[in-house]
Amino acid sequence: MTVRGARLQVRDITVRFDGVVALDAVAFTAEPGSIHAVIGPNGAGKSSLFNVLSGIYRPARGSVLVDGEELVGRAPHRVAALGVGRAFQNGSMFAGLTVEENLLLGRHRLGRGGVLGAGLRLPHVRRSERESRAKVRAVAEFLGVDHLLPLPAAELPYGEAKRVDIARALATEPRLLLLDEPAAGMHTHEKVAIRDTIRRIAAEQAVTVLLVEHDMGLVMGIAEQVTVLDFGQVVLTGPPERVSTDDRVIAAYLGRAGAAEKERSRSRARPSPALEAPAPEAFSPEPPKP
Amino acid sequence: MTYLFSMLVEGGSIGAVYALVALGIVVVYKSSSVVNFAQPSLLMLGTYVVASAHSLHGLPFWLALSLGVAVTAALAVLIDRVLISRFRKTNAVVAASIMTIGLDIVLVTETDRRIGSQILTTGDPWGNDVTRFLGIGVAEARIAALVIGVLLLVLFQLWLHRSDFGVAMRATAEDPETASLMGIRLGRVSATAWGIAGALAVCAGLFLVAYPSPGLDTSVEAVALRALPAAIIGGLDSTAGAIAGGLLVGLSEVLVRGYAEQLAFLGRGFEDAAPYVLMLVVLLARPSGLFGHREAVRV
Amino acid sequence: MSDLNLSGTTVSGLSPSGTVASGPSVPSVPGSAVKGGAGPAPGARWRRPVAALGAGVILFAIPLYADRFWLNLGAFAFAAAVGAIGLMILLGRVGQLSLAHSFFLAVGAYGYIWLASPASESTWGLGLPTLPAAVIAVVLAGLAGLAFSPLAGRLKGIYLGVASLALVFIGQHVLFTAEPLTGGYNGREVPPLTVGAFQVLGSEPGLSLFGVPLRQAERMWYTALIVLILATVFAVLVLRSRVGRAFAAIRDGEVHAAALGVRVAHYRSVAFTLSSVYAGIAGVLLALLFQRVVPEYWDLMLSLEYLAMVVIGGQASVAGAVAGAVFVSSLPLLLQRYSDLVPGMSATSDFGPAYVAQILYGTLVVAILFYEPKGLAEVARRARRALGGRAASTPR
């Protein structure tokens, strides 16, 4: 049993779509209980990576180990059963349900009861349902969304929906929590709140947080390790101080991001041919620990 | 051997007709993601217009046919513009498809009432003659169906690959949002597709009621419905698949009927169920049909 | 008197299930509903049980006043409602279309006939006691649905709809050709349901309630009503549970559902099986009510009628499905009975009741999807609101 979340080892992950290479031999390791960020410009392959990590995409090559258990080749629901929880980029809710029901879906894999048990209100099903509701309330309180529980999820404002989405992922009791751009589209004060939330999750829950993010400020503030992706390849993995001063990263990412802060949301130009991404093995992350 | 050969010709000719109807379903699906369950009823209605213009009002065949094609295509475009277009914004394709089922009920019920117990003929020029063809006797109407059906299919495929509409339809099928950003007018693509589907249905209907079938009666709808398994067998998003599916359905039906004695253990009249059994088998092996593409997952 | 009963039948047909059924979409934690301020007013807590009780009393009292016609109409409507609930779960809650409902209805009906009838020279039969036969027939329908899982789990939405067409045509073929089972064109007698010496659907032994003898029509009404109430409660409980939430999650976003650990294919086939069990129950009831069944009844049009019930009811609501079923199944019978009141319509011309009914509900399907996809369920909700019952908003 891990107390501090799972160790995530990504090795040699390669994803191709119709001949286009979306991820090219991506490798890094996220330590148990740490906050690990993956950054990179649009189209760098961050979303593809997350889709591999939640079992939605099947990579052409490579392996992903969660505490030593292979994730590649499992269907999404079996990846979830490994203890991988995911919050989505746009905070998408199941629109026909209430917030509470959305959070209860996070408890789905931990709950009990099939059609007969539910229809006949068998005792073990009712007990499981009671426990789930209590757990959901606790998670909602932890993230400060308990006042939203009875509301129809479709009516949530964007920012609230993103918090509820994180709560829902946390309700699955993950060992590895995937947060897909948790601060995207948020105001500055909301970003501060999200940053604090992520810190608290990593500090108080037994979970490793893997974070894909656009916002460099947020990432540098909370991540212990940062992996920089560009063109589907790992440019570098290291602590924020090192990443933010690395010439290649500045050239490939920060330079453009800093120069065109306002253009970020519109279109991100591909890096110029001069900035060729370095060969992955030269900058491979620290070797997997035994 | 000649028996098998004559079965194959017969199956091919009826299959080409199914392919025409299925093609209408696929074209609509590709341009709007809606499964048009009303396609068989468009066939019924259009063929009824042709047949009644000819047998009840004495119009010459070509005039009756033009009238039928025009009326059906116009009705199909109207259905798209007035009813189906409402779902485009919300992308409620299940609701839109179910609406076509409602339309099908209304159109078929009304057409059936008008036909009643009559058997109407379209006055098609192929007549009731049987000709010798490579050593077998085949109804001339069947040969006409095969030749004209294949001709239409080939011309249509060529047109789809060359025309602006074909490009727009494929782009829409690929990714409607991007297609729209690129200046493709989704409403127009969809309306065109519906119009084409209506016209194809009438052309196919003409052959379905030609000799050796006695003419248009209320049982033709069940025959026209086999275009749905044809479209699914080929893959709903593949025009080539529609053609393959149509041919397979036609062949399965004719072969099962032709070898009924050997297949007696399946019970009399199994040819009516054969296309559907074939569909289940294909779906078990390939859930997206023979030529269909798997839906891309977007998160 | 009959006019009075007409309104009694239909209105009360809607209300009890209406009260039970809005449950799944309303937050069901008692505390939270009140706390958020979004919950109903204090008195509303009692409104629902009281309304259900009132409606129940009316429904149970109707046989004391109504004649055979209305009791038959009601019994058929209740039976259809059970089937409609099953299809509603599949279409409205999971987003999966099935056009094979008539097939599973037929499995229930003929399963019962086969199990309960004694064998003869020309027909098959096991001659089981009728009550176990009815139960096993329902199980058979469920197994038939389960057997379709390889497709029901993998195919999505409309695709499943077209694939399920196959079952209707295969079913029709079997019904017409397997004469020892189905009696072929001429159909087959349905053994009446009895428990020991008690005829559940007959007149023996003589019983009476407040001086009104409970003969066949009355017993049919009560039997179908009780089955419907049980089926409704079961459905509401399932839809409110973990399983029901998984259904809705698959409908609203299957990839997200899967990422949370929901086994999408598994729950799709569970829903399909559940819906075929409901169809099986309805099939057994219909067979018992018909007393003789013919193959041509269980055709594609029957599937489309059930689809119309669900769409007219609003697709996702148990109450709506019941209301839609009452409407669609009563319409031809009412048109038949009152054909002289509709100008131009007569039972003999081609503007017959069957024609008018089909045109009407075909048009209704189109109109409802066009104007109000939440159907009768939404109309009823607005009416309740307008009448001052501050019912909590019921999103789908």
List the helices and strands and how they pair.
The complex is a heterotrimer of chains A (290), B (299) and C (396).
Chain A: E1 8-17, E2 20-30, E3 35-39, H1 46-53, E4 61-66, E5 69-70, H2 76-81, E6 84-87, H3 99-106, H4 115-119, H5 123-142, H6 158-171, E7 176-180, H7 188-204, E8 208-212, H8 216-222, E9 225-230, E10 233-238, H9 240-245, H10 247-259
Parallel strand pairs in A: 3-8, 3-9, 6-7, 7-8
Antiparallel strand pairs in A: 1-2, 1-4, 4-5, 9-10
Helix pairs in contact in A: 3-5, 3-6, 5-6
Chain B: H1 2-32, H2 39-55, H3 61-83, H4 93-115, E1 130-133, E2 136-139, H5 140-162, H6 164-174, H7 176-181, H8 186-208, H9 220-224, H10 227-234, H11 239-258, H12 274-285
Chain C: H1 2-21, H2 30-35, H3 44-61, H4 68-94, H5 101-116, H6 130-147, H7 149-152, H8 157-177, H9 179-182, E1 188-189, E2 194-195, E3 198-199, E4 208-209, E5 212-213, H10 216-240, H11 242-252, H12 254-259, H13 264-290, E6 292-293, H14 300-313, H15 318-337, H16 353-371, H17 375-386
Antiparallel strand pairs in C: 1-6, 2-3, 4-5
